[in-house]
Specification:
Layout lengths: L6 E4 L3 H9 L3 H6 L2 E3 L3 E5 L11 E4 L2 H10 L5 E4 L2 H9 L3 E4 L4 H10 L6 E6 L6 H7 L4 E11 L4 H8 L4 E5 L2 H10 L6 E5 L2 H4 L9 E4 L5 H20 L5
Parallel strand pairs: 1-2, 1-9, 4-5, 4-7, 5-6, 7-8, 9-10, 10-11
Antiparallel strand pairs: 3-8
Helix pairs in contact: 3-4
Length: 245
Amino acid sequence: MNENGPALLMTRPREAAQRFVELLPSNLRANLPIIYSPLLEISALPVMIDLGGVDAVIFTSGEGVRVASDGQPLRIRAYCVGERTTKAARLAGWDAQYSGDTADALVAALRADVPGGNLLHLHGEYTRGAVAKRLSDTGILCSGMAIYRQELSSFSVEADTALATQRPLIVPLFSPRTAAHFASLCPENAHLSLIAMSEQVAEVMPRLQSGARHVSKFPTAEAMVELVCDVAQTWLRVETEPSED
């Protein structure tokens, strides 16, 4: 593979990034180098997760599932955002129920079919969607608890080099916070094709004027994979086309 040719820059935490890459077709993985540069490091907070008196939990991320599963032994009903979070919760032993692809969809689903008892949203220090508050405002008993930390990181040496040398990079971005951090670190002359999971993610990158922007049709890993494949195939085709000189 051409060391100066297009590459895929993954900024998610390493395990999540590897899971995403595994969803890509094998022929694409064989032709598109992967640069891992996690801009978020996930670590459990020193808190006791007590599910006594809790009838169901809410998971809006796979990190929440992992930390909650490692932090205590109980497995109860879990309302989950996203198919992959739901699958992770089931594999960890929770009575997991898929409740939409976004926090908004989950809130709407629980408002439409009000669950009984007390709910607990287990999330990171930085969370969006105000899930617990919005549910509580409609009379559903719900509280929130931060159980993991999301610390911002710098680019890896490999990513820094690729950006500085204007190597063509396809960059999937999954959250507004990570996207904003990426924009703050990225040189303005970088050669990028940015793939945002949602309009909210795309909106926080106003200073990145170089390259193209694409927004996923749906906020799912599968839709992001499809968009990465489309962009990558275009770039790789351009790279291999013979020159007219």
